[in-house]
Write a structure and sequence with these properties.
alpha+beta; two-stranded antiparallel ribbon; 6 helices; 8 strands; globular
Amino acid sequence: MNGIGFLTAFHWFIPGVQDVHEVFDASADQCPQKPALLAYLEQCPPLVEFMDRLVDEEGTEIGSFSIHSDGEWVWPSYVGYYLHRPRYRLRDERLLQHAAARGFAVPTFTAQEAHTLLQRYLHFSKTGQW
C-alpha cells in the first residue's frame, strides 16, 4: 500500500509527512490527465470521514475531509483541493500512472475489504509505515 498527499499542516502526528511545496509542484505544465485524476481521487471510496473543517496555508477554508483509497493507494481528500489550483500537480506521479493504467476505473470494496484498508490506514497514521 502507498500513501500520497499527507501534509504536515494536517497530519503532523504521522512520521514522514511533507509540506505543501514538497508534495505539489505549483509551477507545473498542464497535465491532460488532470481532470480524470481529480474525478478518480474524489470518487474512490472513503475509508473514514472526519467532521473537522480544514483551512489551507492562506486561511482559505478547504472544508471537511476524508481519507480515500483505491485498494493500493491512500490519500486525504484535500489532495483534490490542491490539484484544483491552476498549475498544481503532484510531484510524485506514481498515483497518476497507477490510476491511468486502471483507466481511471473507480473500485468498489466489500465491507471486509474496506475494514482491512481502514485498519492499514490507522496503523499508518500512528507509525508512518504501511
